[in-house]
Design a protein that fits this description.
The complex is a heterodimer of chains A (191) and B (180).
Chain A: H1 2-16, H2 25-35, H3 40-52, H4 57-93, H5 97-102, H6 104-133, H7 136-142, H8 151-165, H9 168-171, H10 175-188
Chain B: H1 2-17, H2 26-36, H3 42-53, H4 59-102, H5 106-134, H6 138-153, H7 158-175
The chains are: A mainly alpha (191), B mainly alpha (180).
Chain lengths: 191, 180
């Protein structure tokens, strides 16, 4: 029963992904590896689509994964699975909002959870880096070290990094601008 | 009934107008919730938002559930959440449908190969931003490195890391290791 499994997988993601949008990413990679519903390549594309369309990134990614896995009912099921734990938890603590926030135990838990969330996102990012900037398959076939690196992609990454972090006029721009520019570069230079 | 419908519409608008979630959502929430409907004060909104960040799940959804609940009870919480996810479900379903039918076109493949490079950079920037708030002393640096390396090189469910690190946060605080 694919819908039940989709709901369960996204319920788990919603329950354990702490820290918003990108925090769902490691869970999606984990789902991809275990179930084979979608590939790592598709996940990287989903991030781009989720960033370039309205709506919270976490919700967009759940809808996308659900749709790719099981069509429109899948999109709805995955999204509802993702938000169910949030709704239940918030309704439970809504009465004691301040008490929850100021609870020393909760605060101490989050002291440990924040670096965990960053570590998980960084590790998931590494998978995208491997996919986008390296050619492991080409290297395995030819054995030439120079073919391991996707030089065009690495150059684009360096340019984007400088533009998004150091160029004053560009770094405040919405990510969608950089995503579209990269798409154009990809087509023009046939990535 | 009218209030529930208003909640749904207001949060659907928040969903449509938010690109990327997180902090991008605050000015839009202010306009819809504080100025337009007066369902919460600015201070309350910041409180909800702060709690939304320190509960599991998507921040936008947590904030919607909170405001919905305060305005119209449990049903209000559910309706506001459905409102905030409604535009995503519609828009993404349409785009995913289009993309899956064009995925094999060579130009589309090249475009996405370029986009993936951009995604690397976006994730890197997100990690740096979160890092500043998360890695504040030696203990959090150790947790970050442990989770990063184990998760990058072994196939371990992220759930295990989350549970372990929450417990570690509590113990480290109790033992007074924190801040050193």
């Amino acid at each position: 029963m694919i819908y039940l499994r989709l709901f369960f997988e996204f319920f788990k993601t919603g329950l354990f992904a702490v820290g918003g949008g990108m925090a769902t990413l490691p869970f999606l990679y984990d789902i991809s590896t275990r179930t084979g519903w979608f590939t790592h390549e598709m996940l990287a594309d989903m991030i781009a689509v989720s960033e370039s369309t309205p709506g919270p990134i976490g919700v967009n990614m759940a809808t996308y994964v659900g749709y790719v896995t099981a069509g429109i009912p899948g999109a709805v099921t995955a999204t509802l699975g993702l938000v169910t734990p949030s709704v239940v938890i918030i309704l439970l603590i809504a009465r004691a909002l301040r008490a929850f926030r100021e609870n020393p135990l909760v605060e101490a838990g989050f002291y440990g959870l924040r670096p965990c969330s960053v570590g998980l996102i960084a590790a998931a990012g590494l998978l995208v880096v491997k996919l986008a900037l390296f050619n492991p398959a080409l290297y395995a076939a030819s054995g030439k070290l120079s073919e391991l690196f996707n030089w065009k992609a690495i150059l684009l990454a360096a340019v984007l990094l400088v533009c998004t972090r150091y160029v004053k006029k560009l770094k405040g721009l919405h990510p969608i601008v950089f995503i579209l520019a990269s798409a154009v570069v990809g087509v023009v230079f046939s990535f | 009934m009218k209030l529930l419908w208003q909640l749904f519409l207001a949060f659907a608008r928040v969903g449509v107008m938010t690109f990327g979630g997180g902090y991008a959502m605050i000015p839009i929430l202010e306009r819809e919730i504080v100025d337009r409907h007066g369902w919460a004060t600015e201070e309350e909104l910041m409180d909800y938002y702060a709690v939304g960040q320190c509960t599991p799940g998507v921040i936008a959804v947590n904030t919607a559930t909170f405001i919905g609940y305060k305005t119209a009870g449990t049903l209000g919480g559910i309706v506001a959440t459905l409102g905030v996810i409604f535009p995503s479900v519609v828009i993404i379903t349409v785009i995913a449908g289009i993309l899956t039918s064009f995925a094999e076109v060579p130009a589309v493949r090249s475009a996405f190969a370029g986009i993936r490079v951009c995604v690397c950079v976006l994730i890197f920037n997100a990690v740096l931003k979160l890092w500043k708030k998360a890695v504040v002393d030696k203990a959090t640096l150790a947790l970050f490195l442990g989770v990063f390396l184990l998760s990058a090189f072994f196939s371990v469910s992220p759930v295990i890391f989350v549970v372990f690190c929450a417990a570690a946060g509590i113990l480290l605080t109790r033992w007074g290791v924190r801040g050193k």
